[in-house]
Amino acid sequence: MEKEKGGLILDAGDLFLKKFSASPPENEIKRLQEKARLFLKSCELMGYHSIGIGDNDLSLGKKFIAKPSKTSHGIILSSNVIDEDSGNHFFSVTY
Hints:
By secondary structure, the protein is of the alpha/beta class. The chain has one domain (about 25-95). The protein has helices at about 30-45, 60-70; strands at about 10, 50, 75. The protein has a three-stranded parallel beta sheet with strand order 1-2-3, with no helix packed on it. The longest helix has 18 residues, at about 30-45. The chain is globular. The N and C termini lie far apart (about 30 Å). The mean pLDDT is about 80.
């Protein structure tokens, strides 16, 4: 019997949104938020172990990314995003 080989499925960031030179247009925000939620759900269903947060992923704001980061079973992570209000790391991972 052959042993099962392990592996990790990771994304390095900037998965949710394309690069914007300025804030996303107001009339596009709801569509972009839904698209980001769909990407995250797809990653969870495919068994991703981790998704890094890139600068483009933060384009929809701190409040938007906060909710999925708490409900995505710890797969969203970043070691260099600091919450300006508390001074703590914005994303935490628990295993």
